Amino acid sequence: MMNDLIEARKYAKEAMHLAARIEGILDGARPIAIFGDLRAASERTSILRAKLVRVKGALLEREEAIHGDMSSEVLEFRSKRRELEAMLGDAPSEEREYNLRREGALREIESFRAEIQKLEIELMGNEARIAAMEHFMAAGDLDAASRESVSNEVENHRAAATLFREMLESFRGELDILRLQVGLGDQSLEREEDLRREYLEVANRERELLGRGGRDGVDALFIRMARIEEALNEREDAMERIAEQRVQKIREVLEEERAKLDTLSTSLEQLAEEAEIAVAEVAHDNFLLIRDHFEELVIRADVGKLDIAWAIRNQHRDRLEQLTNDRRLELLRLDNEFNEVMMDETGEGSR
User: Fold this and answer.
1) I need a labelling partner for 1 at 20 to 30 A (CA). Which of 15, 137, 330, 332 fits?
2) Is the separation of the CB atoms in 5 and 268 below 8 Å?
3) Is-contact 39 246, C-beta < 8 A?
């Protein structure tokens, strides 16, 4: 029973820890990055937007070459557009480039995880040394003054080890969040997405100022790209709403499970107290039974001793009676022999 109770409390504690980690992920990560399907769709949207930026920039350069002289306002937007192009630089615009960047970030996260593992091994060694020192102190080989000094030092090391372990657990949780943020939640990629959106706005405004020429179907192409851009924005907004709804549902389930865990933890604590009382009562009853059993054994042992002593007494008495009978018979035999001798001497004298 106690083993089952200990296991249940252990699992409840692990469940609470897991719930806290899930809540940390929900609070720290971008909602759309948590769900694999939405994440993949959003990454494809980013790739399409990057390609849209590249195509629209090339078309605008061609349009400006055809128009020749341009107004100062157009030149201002062109300068802004080229500035944004320079800021985007070698930002990924193909799925392969996104995958390479993601793999590099994941490798870096795994290297941090390996470092945390090494630190945990060192911490376990320190905890083992602390436990050994506590065992040495419990042996009582130190005098009072030294024991107090060493005890304070060991307590400080124990507190530091506990703090370091909590920090390692916190780092693990942050790495889990970072792993989810690789790509969609990455700050550099978020900044690049903001630059692309700004670029498209500037490019659209520049195109409006240039006017429509209808050459080579460019106008139709710009209209089509505008529709694609609008569809991408709508799709991304829809995915964000879906992600928020899913996160909200997860939070509701998490709150329900947390409430159940709180109730379960309270019940387990009550059961633990009742179990301690029950175990104490059972132990007390067992001690009483053992005491009675020992008393019975002692009584039996005492009775056995009396039986043995009585048997020895009977043996001694029987031996004494045997010796007394033997002595009496021996005396009787001697008397008979003496009488026979006396009778023989008397007969010879009368002759």
Assistant:
1) 15
2) yes
3) no
Distance CA 45, CA 232 (A): 6
Cβ atoms within 10 Å of 338's Cβ, excluding its own: 10
Tens-place pLDDT, residues 145-159: 777 788 888 888 888
Q: Would you call 93 helix, strand, or coil by DSSP? A: coil
Chain length of the chain = 351
The answer to whether the CB of 243 falls within 8 A of the CB of 32 is yes
Tokens of 131: 């436990």
State the Cα–Cα distance between residues 176 and 22, nearest whole angstrom. Answer: 10
Compute the radius of gyration of the chain from its Cα atoms.
49
| pLDDT tens figures, 325-337 | 888 888 888 778 7
Using the structure block, give the residue that is written with the tokens 């080989």. Answer: 141
Q: Where are the domains of the chain?
A: 2-108+186-281
Could you identify the residue written with the tokens 């504690």? 13
Full-model pTM:
0.55
58-71 tens-digit pLDDT:
888 877 777 666 67
Contacts of 177 (CB under 8 A, 6+ apart): 24, 25, 28, 29
- Which residues are within 8 A (CB) of 199 and not within 5 positions of it... i.e. 6 or more apart? 53, 57, 81, 84, 85, 88
